[in-house]
């Protein structure tokens, strides 16, 4: 990386300062912002490639629009680092995603420039439409812009928003389609192919380039554009413009890294008050060559050397739980030809890419469409296949109706692999998998498995394959305990049966999931001070091992339950209810996440704050 001397970066503390620069100074400012993002993310990891690809978009938008009076909504927020730097957060950007620092995503409580918070995809169009209509109802002179990626625009919510917004020609809304042919992994689906076809029509783009070149210098030609636009598009694109059919005026394609052309284009579009869509072509990771080696990895690469691009890898030799899932899925598929894998645009993150490489015909990346992923899995199961549907816990919330009506009500054998169950760390409140035990626990026919290590995850997947009903397996992000699992023979685990891992007479600790290791450590420390604690690997949050719980309750003075999730409606409360239903009155301390959203920080920091790290478990045991 060729290092620039900062000429403009530290003089721009707000969009108002940005607008003091001449248009000819903007390319240099963009280069400085890009360099600053690289330098900061090298030592304080974050979402790098997406934000590098959207620098010019952020600069042009704040240069042209009167933010924060005009509303700018970033879909997801992976691409919004330049936006944060421009809007007064440059000097605190070093705290990005750290405990007590700024969020890695737009957040309304953090800045007046963050018009809407977005940690999940496809929300920007609907939110922007609501703001545009509110401005009209309130008589405000306000422009509203939504920036959405080509992966996110394939989501059902985005289509619903486009359909609604395009039906009212008086809606003053601009949708910027940031098209880089990627989401986290390469974008999938018919819409992605359509965008490629749309943006590579040579005749159409030659015409558009000439027209926009003239238009940027002569605003009166807007009228010509309005009259000629539809005829030209339908003639050259053979009626293929989906956005026009939804009621949007389509403009594109525009080079998303030519900030001067972006500025001129946006200035021209400001005078058009009807729904409009600007198709911007960008390159994920633009301006930093190392990212092009593997864009999926450089979406969130961790720490790296900014000069060479060499990534600084963890020294842990334990397997990631994601890799256990990916390899086990492939092993099961070799064992049973009915096994298929489904993921909504996260094959690399969840490691389904392992099976995709070996058996691509039996894996389905359905794009950013969680609800569709679940119902698609239900269809596969209804037709005799055995789908393993891997969706991050927090994103599974978006498919809740599909889980209940399309899978559970019909008692179909879909295996839900809930990656990132529990606190995930620096991504914060939008990404913690805090609610899955609670929201699945109340669904009839559902089994919820909570494996404590790599070996149990592997065997839980094998056990789920034998089930003829919905089966959820939740496991955390990151490495396991180092338990041997690779190439181990499969063993079925009796559903609803816990196991004792430590003897004890005074207190019983019921651990759900990978918190078992912390429970064992706390019990060892308690023994030193004379408190004897038994520890149980509960294995299942539903059904509970009721016989074991009731038997243990007769033999100890207190019970402590631990789960990496919300307490309200969680596994610990189910234990309390079981005891109450059987007339057993005793002290039970339920450890987990209280009734609140948890902010960002390391997992260790957040577990300490939430009160269920090793020290907190020890205090609960000896209390």
Q: Biggest β-sheet: count, sense, barrel? A: 7 strands, mixed
Overall mean pLDDT score?
Answer: 91
Enumerate the strands of the largest sheet in spatial order, edge to edge or round the barrel: 7-6-8-9-11-10-15
Count of alpha and pi helical runs: 26
- Radius of gyration, CA atoms, in whole angstroms: 26 Å
- Class of secondary structure makeup: alpha/beta
The shape, in one word, is globular
Proportion of residues in helical segments: 40-55%
Beta-sheet strand percentage?
Answer: 5-15%
The CA-CA distance between the termini, in Å, is: 56 Å
Care to count the β-strands? Answer: 17
Regions with pLDDT < 50 over 5+ consecutive residues?
Answer: 199-205, 226-240
Give descriptors for this structure.
single chain, five-stranded parallel beta sheet, 17 strands, 14% strand, globular
Folded structure, characterized:
Strands 7-6-8-9-11-10-15 form a seven-stranded mixed beta sheet, with helices on both faces. A five-stranded parallel beta sheet has the order 1-2-3-5-4, with helices on both faces. Strands 12-14-13-16-17 form a five-stranded mixed beta sheet, sandwiched between helices. The relative contact order is 0.08. It contains 26 helices and 17 strands. It is α/β, with parallel strands linked by helices. It is globular and about 75 Å long. Residues 199-205 and 226-240 have low confidence and may be disordered.
Short structural summary:
With 623 residues, the protein is of the alpha/beta class. The protein has 26 helices and 17 strands. Strand 16 (558-566), helix 24 and strand 17 (587-593) form a beta-alpha-beta unit.
């Amino acid at each position: 990386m060729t290092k620039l001397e900062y000429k403009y970066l530290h003089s721009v503390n707000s969009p108002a300062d940005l607008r003091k620069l001449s248009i000819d100074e903007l390319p240099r400012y963009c280069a400085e912002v890009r360099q600053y993002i690289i330098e900061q993310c090298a030592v304080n990891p974050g979402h790098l490639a997406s934000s590098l690809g959207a620098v010019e978009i952020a600069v042009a938008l704040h240069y042209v629009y009167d933010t924060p009076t005009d509303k700018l909504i970033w879909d997801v927020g992976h691409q919004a680092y330049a936006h944060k730097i421009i809007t007064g957060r440059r000097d605190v950007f070093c705290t990005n995603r750290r405990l007590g620092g700024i969020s890695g995503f737009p957040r309304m409580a953090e800045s007046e420039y963050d018009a809407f918070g977005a940690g999940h995809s496809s929300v920007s169009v609907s939110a922007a439409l609501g703001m545009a209509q509110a401005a009209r109802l309130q008589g405000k002179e306000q422009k509203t812009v939504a920036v959405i990626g080509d992966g996110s625009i394939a989501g059902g919510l985005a289509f619903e928003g486009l359909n609604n917004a395009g039906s009212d020609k008086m809606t003053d809304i601009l949708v910027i389609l940031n098209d880089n042919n990627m989401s986290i992994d390469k974008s999938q689906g018919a819409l992605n192919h359509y965008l490629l076809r749309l943006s590579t029509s040579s005749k159409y783009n030659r015409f558009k380039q000439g027209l926009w070149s003239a238009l940027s210098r002569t605003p009166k030609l807007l009228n010509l554009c309005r009259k000629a636009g539809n005829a030209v598009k339908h003639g050259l694109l053979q009626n293929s413009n989906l956005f026009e059919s939804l009621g949007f005026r389509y403009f594109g394609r525009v080079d998303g890294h030519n900030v001067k052309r972006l500025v001129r284009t946006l200035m021209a579009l400001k005078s058009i008050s009807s729904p409009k869509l600007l198709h911007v072509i960008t390159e994920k990771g633009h301006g930093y060559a190392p990212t092009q080696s593997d864009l999926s990895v450089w979406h969130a690469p961790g720490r790296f050397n900014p000069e060479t691009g060499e990534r600084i890898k963890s020294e842990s030799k334990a397997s990631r739980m994601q890799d256990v899932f990916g390899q086990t899925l492939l092993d099961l598929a070799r064992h049973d030809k009915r096994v298929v894998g489904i993921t909504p645009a996260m094959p690399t993150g969840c490691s389904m890419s392992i099976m995709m490489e070996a058996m691509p015909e039996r894996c389905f990346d359905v794009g950013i469409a969680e609800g569709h992923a679940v119902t698609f899995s239900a269809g596969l199961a209804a037709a005799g296949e055995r789908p393993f549907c891997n969706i991050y816990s927090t994103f599974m919330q978006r498919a809740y109706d599909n889980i209940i009506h399309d899978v559970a009500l019909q008692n179909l054998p879909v295996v839900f692999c809930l990656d990132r169950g529990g606190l995930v760390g620096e991504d914060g409140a939008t990404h913690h998998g805090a609610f899955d035990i609670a929201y699945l626990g109340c669904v009839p026919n559902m089994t919820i498995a909570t494996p404590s290590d790599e070996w149990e995850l592997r065997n839980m997947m094998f056990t789920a394959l034998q089930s003829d009903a919905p089966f959820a397996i939740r496991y955390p992000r990151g490495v396991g305990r180092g338990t041997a699992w690779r190439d181990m023979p499969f063993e079925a685990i009796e559903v609803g049966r816990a196991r004792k891992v430590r003897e004890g007479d005074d207190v019983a600790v019921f651990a759900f999931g990978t918190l078992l290791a912390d429970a064992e450590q706390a019990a060892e420390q308690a023994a030193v001070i004379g408190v004897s604690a038994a520890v149980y690997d509960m294995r299942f949050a539903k059904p509970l091992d009721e016989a074991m719980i009731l038997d243990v309750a007769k033999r100890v003075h207190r019970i402590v339950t631990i789960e990496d999730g919300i307490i309200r409606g969680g596994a610990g409360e189910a234990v309390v209810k079981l005891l109450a239903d059987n007339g057993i009155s005793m002290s039970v301390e339920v450890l987990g996440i209280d009734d609140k959203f948890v902010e960002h920080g390391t997992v260790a920091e957040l577990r300490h704050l939430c009160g269920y790290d090793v020290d907190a478990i020890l205090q609960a045991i000896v209390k």
